[in-house]
């Protein structure tokens, strides 16, 4: 069902490190033509670390793990490309639809393809005002049922971070901080929320992955929370001010449901003069590099 590129299939067969990358950041997260440049840059970061990149997407109903240059260009330039979560994969496959994959879909497809490590920017989570609207990202449910290691810069700071961490605990998803004792804040180096476990190396992350397999139990994910460097984070005061304005604007305009996340993120980009986008990209680059290190440690048995 999942079509692996020749490069990815060969690497998996030979036991070499592979890192999954999501495609939504290419199709929906960045303006053209910068999106293609960033997609190629992230793949090169993986290769420079000695691993093989596997960008995940669905093209003409076929889930793919690993895209060639033409396929990357298609994801970056094709208008009307759908944004696919896990729940959308079956309809897309049956109807021959093309789409970019979110964290939930990428995690599932990567695991099905035999890839254990996945790098992204930030996870989805519990939205603010959850007690009223009960809006929670499908990422959390998928990660509670998928054995994959996700390297991220926390959850998007527009969300309810404490509630998200509580949900992850309830769903038995392990969260470890990479050289930090505080959960990252996506655009910011810290959200101010503590994490229960801290690791100092990729080898320690790989050791936890092996322990997961030895222990058995539910096939849950491992989240490696890797903060954006303080030198590259968004200015905290600017972040807080613009986010408060964005939340107020969303409330005034009645923006809810699936529209709320893109509305808030776009408001942050405009309100910070593009600085939030640069902080996001800095976080993604760091996460991709760390994921390659972890994938290498994982395969070095």
Walk me through this protein's architecture.
GO terms for molecular function: hydrolase activity, acting on glycosyl bonds; metal ion binding; pseudouridylate synthase activity. It is an enzyme of class 4 (lyase). This is Pseudouridine-5'-phosphate glycosidase. The protein is α/β, with parallel strands linked by helices. About 45% of the residues lie in helices and about 15% in strands. The chain has 13 helices and eleven strands. It has helices at about 5-15, 25, 35-50, 70-75, 90-95, 105-110, 130-135, 140-145, 160-170, 200-215, 235-255, 260-270, 275-300; strands at about 5, 20, 50-60, 60-65, 80-85, 100, 115-120, 150, 175-180, 195-200, 220-225. Strands 1, 2, 3, 4, 5, 6, 7, 8, 9, 10 and 11 form an eleven-stranded mixed β-sheet that branches. Helix 10 packs across helix 13 (about 275-300). The longest helix has 25 residues, at about 275-300. The model has no long low-confidence stretch (mean pLDDT about 95).
């Amino acid at each position: 069902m999942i079509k692996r590129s020749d490069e990815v299939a060969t690497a998996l067969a030979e036991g070499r490190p592979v890192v999954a990358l999501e495609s939504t950041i290419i199709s929906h997260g960045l303006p053209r033509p910068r999106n293609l440049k960033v997609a190629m840059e992230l793949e090169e970061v993986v290769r420079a670390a000695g691993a093989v990149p596997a960008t995940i997407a669905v093209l003409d109903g076929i889930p793919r793990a690993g895209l060639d240059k033409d396929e990357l260009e298609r994801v970056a330039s094709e208008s009307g490309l759908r944004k696919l979560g896990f729940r959308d994969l079956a309809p897309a496959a049956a109807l021959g639809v093309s789409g970019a994959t979110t964290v939930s879909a990428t995690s599932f497809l990567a695991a099905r393809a035999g890839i254990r490590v996945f790098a992204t920017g930030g996870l989805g989570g519990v939205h603010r005002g959850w007690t009223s609207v009960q809006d929670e990202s499908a990422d959390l449910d998928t990660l509670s049922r998928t054995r994959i290691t996700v390297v991220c810069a926390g959850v998007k700071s527009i969300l309810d971070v404490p509630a998200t961490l509580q949900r992850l605990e309830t769903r038995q998803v392990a969260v470890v901080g990479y050289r930090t004792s505080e959960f990252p804040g996506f655009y910011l180096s810290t959200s101010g929320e503590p994490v229960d476990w801290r690791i100092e190396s990729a080898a320690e992350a790989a050791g936890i992955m092996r322990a997961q397999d030895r222990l058995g139990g539910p096939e849950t994910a491992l989240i490696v929370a890797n903060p954006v460097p303080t030198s590259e984070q968004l200015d905290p005061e600017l972040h807080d001010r613009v986010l408060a304005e964005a939340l107020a604007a969303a409330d005034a305009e009645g923006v809810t449901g699936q529209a709320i996340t893109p509305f808030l993120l776009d408001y942050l980009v405009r309100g910070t003069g593009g600085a939030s986008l640069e902080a996001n990209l800095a976080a993604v680059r760091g996460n991709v590099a760390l994921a390659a290190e972890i994938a290498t440690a994982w395969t070095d048995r």
